[in-house]
Amino acid sequence: MTRSLSLCLLAALAVLAAGCRQAQALPDLGKIPSFSLTDQDNHPFTNSTLAGKAWVAAFVFTRCPMACPKVTRAMKDVLADAQRQQVPLHLVSFSIDPDNDTPEVLRKYARDYGVDTSRWTFVTGNPKAIATTAERGFKIAVEGTADPSKADFGITHGTQLVLVDKEGSIRGFYGSGDAEALKKMVSDAGRLAAK
After folding, report:
1. Does a structural domain hold residue 120?
2. 3-state secondary structure string, the chain?
3. pLDDT for 162-172, tens place per residue?
4. How far apart, in whole angstroms, are the C-alpha atoms of residue 93 and residue 84?
5. Which end of the chain is more exposed for a tag (fewer CB within 10 A), N or C?
6. Residue 102 lies inside a defined structural domain of this protein
7. How far apart are CA 93 and CA 42, in angstroms?
8. pLDDT value of position 156
9. Can you say how many angstroms the Cα of residue 99 is from the centroid of all Cα atoms in its chain?
């Protein structure tokens, strides 16, 4: 065997070996805290409701004029991508305007977006519990209270999507406006679901 052929063979083997390595493990960014909320069908919804499933959380409110419709469309795209790839993934949208977003309002919001609520839940509850869940649990900033006379209805909040594993640990944050990040999230969710 010639030296150049040997070098080509070694290079090919190195490429194959690199391709066979497992992807880097997802970080464990902490457990989500216990919460007790209500879903769009007026049923109790807690952190244990999705125990044993990989899921994605987002924080929105139905009167939000700009950011939330984009986040909701991103979530809809994520769910469609997960279904195409046969990744078992559940979505949860937490309302940060619970005084307005009753179960009935959330149910209408889900209908307006054509959401399959068997795979995507909208939750509401006590305003303090939601704020604590967002900020301390999911590390998503939420500020302000609803005021129709103010920009963005007086509420500002983080728009990242949060990937949670089967044991209730946060495994990643993904920009809702970044198509590549959302594809990676579905891929990461597939890795979590396979474990």
Report:
1. yes
2. CCHHHHHHHHHHHHHHHHHHCCCCCCCCCCECCCCEEEECCCCEEEHHHHCCCCEEEEEECCCCCCHHHHHHHHHHHHHHHHHHCCCCCEEEEEECCCCCCCHHHHHHHHHHCCCCCCCEEEEECCHHHHHHHHHHHCCCCEECCCCCCCHHHHCEECCCEEEECCCCEEEEEECCCCHHHHHHHHHHHHHHHHC
3. 999 999 999 99
4. 21
5. N
6. yes
7. 15
8. 76
9. 23
Instruction: Say how far apart CA 171 and CA 173 lie, in whole Å.
Output: 7
Amino acid sitting at position 39: D
Supply the range of the domain harboring residue 150.
26-194
What are the tens digits of pLDDT across the range 89-117?
A: 999 999 999 999 999 999 999 999 999 99
Structure-block tokens of residue 73: 């469309």
Beta bridge partners of 156: 143
Query: What is the count of structural domains for the chain?
Result: 1
The C-alpha atoms of residue 35 and residue 125 are separated, in whole angstroms, by 10
pLDDT tier, 79 (very low <50, low <70, confident <90, very high otherwise): very high
Structure tokens at 141: 């900033």
The answer to whether residue 3 is domain-embedded is: no
Residue 128: how many other CB atoms lie within 10 Å: 9
